[in-house]
Amino acid sequence: MPNRYWLVILLTALSLQAHAKESAADNYKAYCVQCHGLQGNGNGVNIRDMSVVPRDHTDAKSMSGRSDETIFKAIKEGGPAIDKSILMPPWGGTLSDEEITDLVQHLRMLCKCKFGS
Q1: C-alpha angle 95-29-117 in degrees, rounded to nearest 5
Q2: pTM, rounded to two decimals
Q3: What residue segments make up the domains of the chain, in order of their start?
Q4: Does the domain formed by 21-111 have CATH 3.90.1150.10?
Q5: Which of 15, 64, 84, 100 could covalently link to 79 via disulfide, CB atoms 3.0 to 4.6 Å apart?
């Protein structure tokens, strides 16, 4: 009987882990680096085929001019939602609002900046 108890606990833990949200860094690697680059500097592998240079997330001057709400909206709804490039896709169908909020904070870490600073 005790072995069954531990098996249930193990299976429950594995199930919860499989459904845990990805970290912001993991989501950035999965969805953003192709265009924005591994370092977040706008030099991703897709840049050669793009008519618009992707935003440099390490540029504190540029990034501090964008509010967290604007960045959130760009990620969730895509570039056109904030009058930017159609090449920036909407990720709202892929990422939860919580994951997008975490991603905004990850971008703040990359630029080492805050809005208005």
Answers
A1: 80
A2: 0.81
A3: 21-111
A4: no
A5: 84
